[in-house]
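Batch queue: ligand-bound targets. Current item pairs a single chain with zinc ion. No template structures supplied; prediction is de novo from sequence plus SMILES. Inputs echoed for audit trail.
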Amino acid sequence: MKKRFKLERFSSCIAGAVLCSAAVYAQPAASPAPDHPTITVQGQKFSPLAILTRNMGTLEDQTTPFQPHKIVGNIYYVGTKTLSSFLIVTPQGNILIDSTYERNVPTIQKSIEQLGFKFSDTKILLGSHAHGDHQEGDALVKQLTGAQVMAMAEDLPALRAIKPGGKEHPIDKTLHDNDTVSLGGTTLVAHLTPGHTRGCTTWTTKALEGGKSYNVVINCSLRAPNVVTPEIAKEFDRSFKLVRSLPCDVQVGDHPAQYNLQGKYSKIRNGGPNPFIDPASCNVETDLEEAMFHAILDEQKKAGR
Ligand SMILES: [Zn+2]
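Prediction returned. Tokens below.
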């Protein structure tokens, strides 16, 4: 088992230097990574590595499209098996959240077209956070669609460092906490929820379905690094509180595992209730990540760090 994890970590690092440099493992690839503490949430055991592996899956999972589908109202899933990408469709063009890896951009384009929409209608490109597995493809999306790229101020330095093939990372508009992005009657609110990255952005919007309005929360990752500095701890303390305060009927995240996409998607039945409308599951991921965050802090305190 250990060997498999090591291999996956190695593959992921090759695939996304930016992700790995900021992820759980800060030490050289040759030394074994510490994989503790272990926590139990809702009867399931998690270690930091188990959460990372759950999020990323295999290299193949990261590039294989998940069946594109409607989530709720005008919000659609167009990402891969383990990297989320969301399309918000409006009469005045579309908003894309997370380009993922650059090599996934043609896959996202295909998923958008499979749903009957045009990739060239992408007018605005947003992101969850400045890690390569979520925003490496921004320059290519802009090149192919002309979309305006908007990003949270606190993530700009890290975003500018993501330059696939030497391409400059496009930034057309800088956003700040609580800024809104509107297009064709849809408004998204950018909530600064730092910790995982400095400018980690949780997006909220309202979606209309069956004559009802639903609060949608598109979470940024809340996964803590394996060494939590006092500054990062402060950021997470604020972010956990903020995320829990958001009105929520539908919760999704930047990795499908953060909202049990597989399980919910399997419940889609013709004419049945929409499985993504599930207020009871809105904080499941937050509970897990907050428990791990506190376990890491406790461990650091005991070690006198
Ligand atoms: Zn990340």
